[in-house]
DNA sequence: GAAATATGTCTCAAATATGTGACATACTAC
DNA sequence: GTAGTATGTCACATATTTGAGACATATTTC
């Protein structure tokens, strides 16, 4: 059974993702605990958000590292990382939004995130494919990185909104991402 | 010279886009007016947000209709609509986020937006291209629609974050979108 | 089943955000 | 320059959100 702490974090991620100003009352309700209990685990709002960031970052990184290592081929690696991120759903979306919104006080953390193992692995894969002219050489790597995140977010959102069936979504995402960077598998 | 009302709306769009719970104090400051003045133009927070929605919707729709009509060719129409949306920048991003976040009370408006002229024009363009097998037939139209919005948002964000130069951004967006839907120009 | 731990309920104080009135000042039109 | 309009400043009432204490109740552990 999920710990109370974990339940609260899951609830907070769901809430804050839509609306970063949801009240702690609502988060507690969503988690099925009282607000008083929430305060026993998290001193204040910032503490809660900080905890969400950390946990989600760990969760996403772990999933993507596993995906990275699941196949020796660079293209399969990238595909599986895409799938893993989509599978993370709300977790991934939360991290992405948080860093989009990040202000100066978050810059250190952002740098930390950016210099992260997973990201550099991903960068190297793309760099090599571009060097080998397997993908479009007009596009810059930062653009491709942003695009990768967007396609993932689109896939997550498309399912949540009911626009696209869950099974279709990850396939569409891969087809679209491949095409977008000019990759012929 | 921009009217005070317009200044406030512009500021509100910028603020609420990052953080929908920014205080009215901050919006006023961003607009360079006092909070008291803000309240003279907008009864309350809801009134302000409602006004932002309306104005941004009008602004985006107008820009995209002009783009639509700027060229007889369907592909150029789509490309120019993409460019127009990117050009709208914060305006477009605000509208997109608002509707992603929309709850039940917004559903009517959302439907209104969805049945909108611009969207149906866009849908028909894509539908025709797909029927003519000019673009990938595996992908569904709702997916392509979501993707279109994401690519636009990516282009806007990539410039704002400094990752990609402004001139590159819209070209990258078009290259990527074309590729993503399998369009050969 | 007793002790320890976790959670809920009720309560309250402090902080923050909001809406508005009263009046001063700046700007515009004529 | 004067009337009229727009805006700023200050003050204040109200509502909301937050954080925590005191104590009851439930759950776990031994």
Automatic annotation (TrEMBL), chains A, B:
InterPro entries: Homeodomain-like_sf (IPR009057), HTH-type_TetR-like_transc_reg (IPR050109), HTH_TetR (IPR001647). Keywords: DNA-binding, Transcription, Transcription regulation. It comes from the Bacteria. Residues 23-42 bind DNA. The keyword Transcription applies. Residues 2-60 form the HTH tetR-type domain. This is TetR/AcrR family transcriptional regulator.
């Amino acid at each position: 059974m999920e710990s109370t702490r974990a339940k609260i974090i899951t609830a907070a991620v769901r809430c804050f993702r839509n609306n970063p100003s949801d009240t702690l009352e609502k988060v507690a309700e969503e988690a099925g605990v009282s607000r008083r209990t929430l305060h026993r685990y998290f001193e204040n709002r910032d503490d809660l958000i900080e905890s969400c960031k950390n946990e989600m970052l760990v969760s996403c990184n772990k999933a993507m590292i596993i995906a990275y290592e699941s196949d020796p081929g660079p293209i399969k690696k990238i595909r599986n990382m895409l799938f893993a991120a989509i599978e993370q759903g709300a977790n991934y979306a939360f991290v992405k939004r948080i860093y989009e919104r990040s202000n100066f006080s978050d810059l250190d953390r952002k740098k930390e995130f950016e210099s992260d193992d997973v990201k550099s692995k991903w960068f190297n894969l793309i760099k090599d494919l571009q060097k080998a002219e397997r993908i479009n050489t007009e596009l810059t790597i930062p653009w491709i990185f942003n695009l990768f995140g967007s396609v993932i977010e689109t896939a997550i959102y498309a399912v949540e909104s009911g626009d696209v069936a869950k099974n279709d979504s990850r396939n569409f995402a891969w087809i679209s991402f491949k095409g977008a960077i000019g990759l012929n598998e």
